[in-house]
Amino acid sequence: IVEVLNILKEENPEEKMNKIWDILPVNKYSYHMQPDPNGICQYQICGKMFQESAKIGYVESILKKYYNEYGKRAKLAADNQNIDWKAVSHALRIAYQAKEILTENKISFPLKNADFLLKVKQGNLNYLKNVAPIFDELIDEVESLVKTSTLPERVDRKFWDKFICEKLEETICV
Question: 137-161 pLDDT, tens per residue?
């Protein structure tokens, strides 16, 4: 965001984004989108999309607000403050399990990463150095795996309800 903001602040706020379209950075978090069905080009930065016809000043004001809000959270995360470690550990667990389902068609118990997840849950790691990079990588992997997955779109609830009831009956009646 900082790189884009530096470009925007050097430009006339009344000009349109298409004036600087070719100098906008392209990376993992900011890139040009394919034109929509109406031929309108958009630029995405950290999940926010802006049309090429938007005024530079408008885009700059939105990105400044977003940066200020995100910057506070990033600073707190850097200091390991204000992090819901339990929620982070659950999100990581789900990402690990999703990856395992998509690659091995199973979920293992106990979890392979149980020690790491416990450290996360207890807040014993630096979020920005030890947790966020792993989480980002896991999310990217899962998103990629989902695209090529052969698993069905929907769960067969009747099958699983019956399966669980049968297993419970077997366990209880023994």
Answer: 999 999 999 999 988 888 889 999 9
User: Cα(56)–Cα(19) distance, rounded to whole angstroms?
Assistant: 9
CA gyration radius for the chain?
Answer: 23
Reduce the DSSP state of residue 160 to 3 states and report it: helix
Here the tokens at position 69 are 């809000």
Neighbours of 163 (CB within 10 A): 11
Cα–Cα distance, 25 to 125 (Å, whole number): 32
User: Are 32 and 66 contacting, i.e. CB atoms less than 8 angstroms apart?
Assistant: no
Tell me if 57 sits within 8 A of 13, measured CB to CB.
Answer: yes
What does the alpha-carbon distance between residue 132 and residue 75 come to, in Å, rounded to a whole number?
Answer: 13
52-84 pLDDT, tens digit per residue, is: 999 999 999 999 988 887 766 666 666 666 788
CB atoms within 10 A of CB 95: 19
This prediction's pTM: 0.51
Six-digit token string for 38: 């109406």
